[in-house]
Amino acid sequence: MKNEEIPSVIRKRPLFIILLSLLFFIGIALVFLSDKDQSSSLTDNTAAANAVFTENENAFSNEGYVSSLEKRLKEMISSIDGVENVKVMITLKNTSETIYAEKTEERDLPSGKERSSSIILRKAKNGDEVPIPVSEKLPVIGGAAVTCSGNINGTLKAEIISLISCALDLPTNKIYVGG
Questions:
Q1: What CA–CA distances, in Å, run from 152 to 73, 85, 159?
Q2: Would strands 97-100 and 129-131 be described as parallel, antiparallel, or unpaired?
Q3: Helix ranges restricted to H, the chain
Q4: Which pLDDT value is given to residue 99?
Q5: pLDDT given for residue 122 in this prediction
Q6: Which of 124, 123, 118, 125 is nearest to 100 (CA)?
Q7: CA distance 179 to 175
Q8: Which of 32, 56, 83, 132 is positioned for an S-S bond with 101, CB 3.0–4.6 A?
């Protein structure tokens, strides 16, 4: 009887493999279809964001960035035992930089290929043509200065310098702590 059952199991096995393969390909197809849906929704979201864009809303404020960092750093330093009346100043190496969408064209010339790029513009609500921002590069922090009162000894000063160095990713020679 076992010999009679073996051929039926072998006959059923190819059907099982075919069904398993079919399910695998359906799963792959669903993954690709879901990626297309996400990319189209991303395009829709980008279009919606561009529709409500105004230059004032997108303008990056270096002063606001520095002020926010100074405030957060002051709170962190003030939380150290023995440190009082903290004042923080952060300097920047450069300002923020906005990257705009570009269109690049390539032409074949007898002397070689010529590339030209231009910034893509769109109409703002007021009718002006404005560039489409793609990303914003934050300014690079140049240094930090902290003054505080309290019993600021060498150990506490080193702790404050270490905190600032870690928080702002600054080398210690770009940090001043005084009392």
A1: 17, 12, 10
A2: unpaired
A3: 2-51, 55-58, 62-78, 154-168
A4: 87
A5: 87
A6: 118
A7: 14
A8: 132
The type of residue at 120 is I
Check residue 94 and report its DSSP letter. Answer: S
- Nearest residue to 131 via CA among 77, 70, 53, 63: 53
Residues of the chain with pLDDT under 50: 1, 9, 36-59
| CA 73 – CA 1 distance, rounded (Å) | 82
CB-CB contact of 42 with 34 (8 Å): no
What letter would DSSP give residue 134? E
Contact (CB, 8 A) for 146 and 87:
yes
**Residue 82: helix, strand or coil by DSSP?**
coil
Element (H, E) at 85: strand 83-92
pLDDT value at residue 43: 43
- Torsion, Cα of 59, 63, 65, 71 (10° steps): -150
Q: 97: closest CA among 44, 139, 41, 69? A: 139
pLDDT value at residue 22: 73
